[in-house]
Amino acid sequence: MIPRIQRRGKRTIGLLYYLYEPGRYETHVDPHLVASWDNNAPDPGRDPDATLKQLQRLLDQPVENIDKAERPVKHVWHLSVRNAAEDRTLTDDEWGDIARRMVAAAGIDDPEQEAGCRWAAVRHADDHIHIVATLVREDGYKPDLHHDAARVQTQARLLETELGLRRLNKGDGTAAKRPTSAERHKAKRQGRVRTAREELRETVRRAVAGAQSEAEFFDRLDAAGLLIRKRAAPSGDLLGYTVALPDDRNTDGEPVFYPGARLAPDLSLPRIRERWSAGQPDQGSPPRTVTDGPSAARRRTASAAWTAIVVVGQGEDGAAAAAIAAAGEVLDALATTSADHTRRELRDAATAFERASRSRVRAERGHDRALRQAARDLIHSGPALGQGEDGATTAMAIDMLFFLITAAVHWHAKHHHAQQATAARQSAEHLRAAYQNAAAQPLAALHQRGRRLSRPLRQRQSALLREALPELADRILAEHGWYALAATLADTEAAGHNPATLLADAAESRELDTAHSVSETLAWRLRRAAGLPADISGDQTTTRPAPRKVSPERPGPRRSRG
């Protein structure tokens, strides 16, 4: 249930006309009163003898009874209350009770005092009502409406539970602005899946991902085909920007522009600049741009995510908030550059995580440098193929990002950020689906490699597993992915590493409780830490690159296995 207080107005009759007329797109069906301050109030929708003017005069009567100098400049209060699409259709009596409780919660009316404002609740659709009230009480005093929005939200949460409706999480004022009803109707009329506001938000968000300067940011917006207006001070300094879709026009045929801050709180130019100001260790040096391919960028992304998990789980709140925000940039960049079979789920993951990337905890920029550089590398390395090393390292990166997003779920839950935690969980589910699509081919090749290992070698890998991870060994050996891990352990040893040490570190440095397959996750972690090829399809024998001593990455403290 979403209660939304609209802007206050000056003309009661104008709002009544809107509520009782068919609507611009014939969306108002059978408008009628479901409740009001007076059970005998006229209902122009159901009573043929009642008029809108009669209802308006009665609503405005307390306002007219006081001196003009004391009347509120804008005396019309307007609240809409809308249910979710999946909710059952409520009766008029239920909507009437909702209206009475909403005006009482807001401070508009208090039946016990018998001196509230006059109000009326109009229903003109199955899923919502509108409440119109005039802001002078019967006794001539004006109501106290401080924090009315917060109070009606609290009442909505109670009503959701009592009426068995979809329960929404309490917000903290950091959510992006929802599309208005007019924007939704316009999108539907034009055959758009999303509103212009939503399309612009995603496009701007992707343009920000890994960008390091205003010039680069605006170049990306221009390349995406958006119309851009920049707002400058008399000195010439840039103050802000607005964007529009070329084909989104108003009734005069002019483009409809949206300021960045109206798309999302962190898309205003000052907030975007915060990312750039801490983007480079040396502010005098130009941003680093990679020239190698997509697979290398994905490996760096996996490493950045691996390190960021510790920051989110154990770091200061400001550093954790920065890492979580930057994780959103990485998801956007990965969705933009990945192959078709993973792009949809990655895009949905990025869209869901957008809500999780902001909270009341202010991000301390600079702690997100590695993740933002990873996003930049992904963009500049170009699109990845869905097969070979590109596809396999995509699966590796998604696997690491899944655990980073899961860490964000726990962090938000610990801080009672209910909306953000829910959004991060949704994002994690999309990442899990994307991983399944990306990992199928390279894991199948690893699985076959593991099955072809000699029996003595597989027995040696089993013994190594039991020695390194005694508490997880039985579970891993029973998994389908064990053969992929066995092949990876053999490759790790052939590359000159100590597989037992790397395996213990891979298991202990980050949690595995949420892993769909522990063996698969450990295989990716080992291949990343040891620098092994992620894709071995077509290779019939264990590769033996020149031995090299590589210390396993240990960004976090190891936990005792005892």
SSE inventory with pairings:
Elements: E1 2-5, H1 12-20, E2 32-36, H2 52-64, E3 76-82, H3 92-106, E4 119-125, E5 128-134, H4 148-163, H5 181-190, H6 196-208, H7 214-223, E6 227-232, E7 238-244, E8 258-259, H8 260-263, H9 269-277, H10 294-314, H11 317-337, H12 340-356, H13 369-381, H14 388-414, H15 418-452, H16 455-468, H17 473-478, H18 482-494, H19 499-508, H20 518-529
Antiparallel strand pairs: 1-3, 2-4, 3-5, 4-5, 6-7, 7-8
Helix pairs in contact: 1-2, 3-4, 6-7, 10-11, 10-13, 10-14, 11-12, 11-13, 11-14, 12-15, 14-15, 14-20, 15-18, 16-19, 18-20, 19-20
Beginning-to-end CA distance, first to last residue: 49 Å
What is the global morphology?
Answer: elongated
The counted number of beta strands is: 8
| Low-confidence blocks of residues | 281-285, 540-562
Sequence of strands across the biggest β-sheet: 1-3-5-4-2
Structural class, judged by helices and strands? alpha+beta
Overall number of structural domains: 3
Mind explaining what this structure looks like?
By secondary structure, the chain is of the alpha+beta class. It has three domains: about 1-165, 2-Layer Sandwich (BirA Bifunctional Protein, domain 2); about 180-275, no CATH class; about 295-530, no CATH class. It has 20 helices and eight strands. It has helices spanning about 10-20, 50-65, 90-105, 150-165, 180-190, 195-210, 215-225, 260-265, 270-275, 295-315, 315-335, 340-355, 370-380, 390-415, 420-450, 455-470, 475-480, 480-495, 500-510, 520-530; strands at about 1-5, 30-35, 75-80, 120-125, 130-135, 225-230, 240-245, 260. A five-stranded antiparallel beta sheet has the order 1-3-5-4-2, with helices on both faces. β6 (about 225-230) and β7 (about 240-245) form a beta hairpin. α3 packs antiparallel against α4 and α14 (about 390-415) runs antiparallel to α15 (about 420-450). It is elongated, with a radius of gyration of 29 Å. Mean pLDDT is about 90; it is low at about 280-285 and about 540-560.
